[in-house]
Amino acid sequence: MKTNVAVFYGCRSVEHEVSIISAVQAMRAIDREKYDVTPVYVTKDGEMYTGSDLFTIEEYRNMPELLKKCKKVYLVKENRNVVMKYENAGLFSSKKPVNIDVAFPVVHGTNCEDGTIEGYFEYLGLPYVGCDIISSAVGMDKAIFKDVLKGAGLPVLDCVCFRAREYMTDKESITAEITEKIGFPLIVKPVNLGSSVGITKVNAIEELDDAITLALSFADRILVEHAVSAIREINCSVLGDTDSCTASVCEEPFMNDEILSYEDKYMGNSKNGGQSKGMASLGRKIPADLSEEKSKEIRDLACKIFKAIGASGVVRIDFIIDTETDTVYANEINTIPGSLAFYLWEASGIKYPELCDRLIELAFRRQRSRENLTFTIDTNILSGISFGTKGSKGAKM
Amino acid sequence: MNYYLLISLILAAISGMFSITRQFQMLQQNSYFPSRYTKWLKENFEGLPIYLFLISSLLFCFGLYKIQTFFIAACLGFNIYSAVNTQKKSIKKLVFTARVKRLYTAAFLIFALFVVLYAIFGDTVLGRAAAAVTFLLSFISPILVYISWAVTNPVEKAFAKYYVNDAKRILKSHKNLNVIGITGSYGKTTSKFILTRILSEKFNVVCTPHSFNTPMGVVRTVRESLKPQTQIFVCEMGAKNIGDIKEICDIVDPDMGMITSVGAQHLETFKTVDNVFKTKFELANAVKTKNGKVFVNGDSAEIISRIENENFTVYGTDADFDFTAENISYGRNGSEFEVKLGNDTVKLTSKLLGLHSIINITGAAAIAYSLGVSVEDIKFAVASLKPTEHRLELKSSIKGSLLIDDAYNANPEGSLEAVRVLGSFDGMTKVIITPGLIELGDKEYECNYNLGLEAAKYCDIMIFVGNNRSKPMLAAAKDSNFPKDKVFAVGSFREAMEIYSGFADSNSVVLLENDLPDNYLN
User: Fold this and answer.
1) Does one domain contain both B355 and B314?
2) What count of other Cβ atoms lies within 10 Å of the Cβ of residue B222?
């Protein structure tokens, strides 16, 4: 009897394709001696499919053909288990319902990684890998993430935040505020997208409006922060939960443009006809060229940030070093990092199958500690209340 | 064939199906044992159905079929009403399990058989006999209960066998599953929950819920709750007869065991304590065949006197044991004690009070430690244990004082232990409020006198409730020369609390023994 791990990926997100790459990698890494793996591919319309063809990355080139080979499924709760059922499964169909023991979301971006899919699992009472609703949501919103870190006394760059309506109706004062508080060069970001989508570096006031307009096409809320000119980007992954966590070695990604763009992150090699390999294929130096001291500082900071937002599972935290002052700032967090940051863990001595194994164990661990708390009281309070007879104006409690 | 009679028979059959509801309910609540159901029946059978049956029989014998039809129609109405009403009012209603549905089906088929027999043979001797049986079964429904039970029993046995085999198959397919059996005359359910809580810090644990401890209860847990990721199955095992524990062991094949106590329980079936010991240690025998560890409570005199020269891991409060709770103290945070785990002496704190709780925790911690749960995890889990309501439950009370709510404790030994727990709140003003124990028959005076003696030993202030009830305890106070101005007898709890509020401060602790605080504490 093996634990059945359902890997959820795809979803209604701009990073749909990246998620497919990360998920296929993860599904291949999970130890089949110990686990059964059920792929649950969520289309851009939010429909769920399963099938053995989903394990092969090449199949995804022809999506309509792939979906024809797969079966549409849905999840229901039955006898305290979560069961995956096949749509249109007839009485004599060989497609029997499957028990799901744990969910393994490998999704990126809004409408999934931001607590949405985590909420779905919570609702079903299904143990799941990774951050819970709140930490996922905080991790997704760059502005709130900064607020939480500031509150915990952790270093972040100052920023100005505003909403689309505020900017559209009063460009002058917001532009003035940005110029005064942040100054140029600066960076404009939508608050809630990962993978550098919609992010622009702005060197002069003339470019500001275009950058904000671009960002506003991705999100309703915009964040503007100072662009550190003498900059190094350092990433570090953290694995564990709030009781105990460890940081991986640090990496330093190479930048083609001034900031790491979507193309850099995920399309690096594919232009040359090579396969898409996700974050793992990006040009980078592991471990990053840092003094032992600096590396320790960043790794400690990473664990503190992990705990501050109440994260769980594996995350990747991106830092900025202002090389002029040698100051480290936390830039953003990926609560489900591309390729699950496995390349950082392999460099830290943990092989990908073991990483997956630990993540699944962490999911069960969280479930256990939740079960030790009381969520419902067995007696029905309503059973003792009379709601009156017909014609009375509702019950008073 | 008489059509009025046929209608009567059909109505009687329907009526019988309703009146049997109450009987099936009681059969279910007696665990489907006909013998226990019979015992209930003897105590609760009423004459009314017999009178109604006699009336019906008279009408039948004199050929007054038309009147009989109306009479039975009336009975049907009455039975529908009373069946629905009884279920509505019952605290423990009939649960329509698959088994109950099979019983109903059997009852229905039996009625159908006799009605059809009448329809075929009409007014011949055979036909009329079938009619008579139908009426009999309709009015005297317990007879039908026995028949339905007998008819379905072979089916139930086959089902049970299938379930047992299925459970064995599931357990076998879990290659690395560790099964821990827990048995004992007292404390097995509590120990099970404590052990499960501690183990869940590190492992995916499933335990038998509530006090499920029969073979079928265990089988049900295995089939419904065991998941592929389950690493440990904590299985409570109950016994009323020799061989009961072995029967469960044969199903679950335990790797480890915990025996919480051996005492004089269920002696009506066990006859001697030796037999109790033998039965409980069937668990030890099963575990030993797998070279597993068996943890036993050394504080249980009936255990420690019987296990010399045998290889057991002993826990309790004696310094010679393998795992020992030492330096026990009680205070505002609950109980505090030390247990040596490996090379570390670990200080544990728990909201659970009482020596028996501490012993149970020590046993559970010993097992968890030997399975590799870290000392930190054990500490946290023990500190998070929740007490059962109104069982030595530590709460805060008026003016910052402490309250030990032991309202549900009604047995003499337990109440003496509660007083001793109160006595160990060193340096605090110790107060007891109690009406004494009730419903102990001939022994009531003696037990309450002893409670008074023990209270006089440990308490600073004693408040007894009930002017009459407090007499034995007052006598005990007098005989132990307890200061007269520190003992009170009052008429009600409200008065008791008024007196207590005069003494209460942040340095006082009050034990509320054998009554609910909610009645007067607001």
Assistant:
1) yes
2) 26
Two tokens, residue A225: 């922060």
Chain segment A207-228, per-residue pLDDT in tens: 999 999 999 998 899 999 999 9
Cβ separation B173–A364 shorter than 8 A: no
B148 Cβ contact list (under 8 Å, min separation 6): B20, B103, B106, B107, B110
Q: How many CB pairs under 8 A join A and B?
A: 25
Predicted confidence (pLDDT) per residue in A365-389, tens digit: 999 998 887 555 555 656 655 665 4
Among the partner-chain residues B205, B224, B228, the one whose CB lies closest to the CB of A3 is B228
Question: Does any CB of chain B come closer than 8 Å to the CB of residue A3?
Answer: yes
Of the partner residues B170, B173, B229, the one whose CB lies closest to the CB of residue A101: B229
Residue B165: inside a domain: no
CA dihedral B505, B511, B514, B520 (to 10 degrees): 10
- Residue B506: domain span: 393-519
Which residues are within 8 A (CB) of A156 and not within 5 positions of it... i.e. 6 or more apart? A146, A149, A150, A329, A330, A331
* Last residue of one domain, picked from the residues B155, B189, B216: B155
Reported pTM:
0.86
Segment (H or E) for B340: strand B334-341
Residue B408 CA to chain centroid, in angstroms? 14
Same-domain pairing of B266 and B290: yes
Nearest to B452 by CA among B429, B427, B435, B430: B435
**Which residues share a beta bridge with B302?**
none
Helix (H, G, I), strand (E, B) or coil at B59: helix
Among residues B365, B384, B403, which one ends one of the domains?
B384
Q: Does A383 touch chain B (CB under 8 A)?
A: no
pLDDT at site A269:
45
User: In chain B, how many domains are there?
Assistant: 3
Q: Does domain A159-226 correspond to CATH entry 3.30.1490.20?
A: yes
* A107/B contact by beta carbon, under 8 A: no
Backbone phi, psi, residue B429, to 5°: -75, 120
Which residues in chain A touch residue B227, judged by CB atoms under 8 angstroms apart?
3, 101
Can you tell me the ipTM of this complex?
0.85
Token digits of residue A381? 């309070």
Do A1 and B200 count as a contact with CB atoms less than 8 A apart?
no
Residues A355-361, mean pLDDT to the nearest whole number: 98
Query: Same domain, yes or no, for B182 and B97?
Result: no
pLDDT at residue B472 is higher than 70: yes
Nearest CB partner across the interface for B384, out of A79, A371, A372: A372
Q: Decide if A4 touches B, using CB distance below 8 A.
A: yes
Indicate which CATH number applies to the domain containing B442: 3.90.190.20
Which among B227, B373, B377, B379 is the top mutation candidate for probing chain A, defined by the most A β-carbons within 10 Å of its own β-carbon? B227
- Looking at the structure, tell me whether residues B138 and B259 fall in a common domain: no
Helices and strands in chain A: count of H runs, count of E runs: 12, 16
Is residue B163 included in any domain, yes or no? no
Instruction: Return residues 51-80 of A near B (CB < 8 Å).
Output: 79-80
Does the distance separating the beta carbons of A79 and B229 come in below 8 Å?
A: no
Residues of chain A contacting residue B229, judged by C-beta atoms under 8 Å apart: 3, 101-102, 364
Which of A1, A80, A102 lies at the smallest CB-CB distance from B174?
A1
CATH, domain A139-155+230-370, list 3.40.50.740, 3.30.470.20, 3.30.950.10, 3.40.190.150 = 3.30.470.20
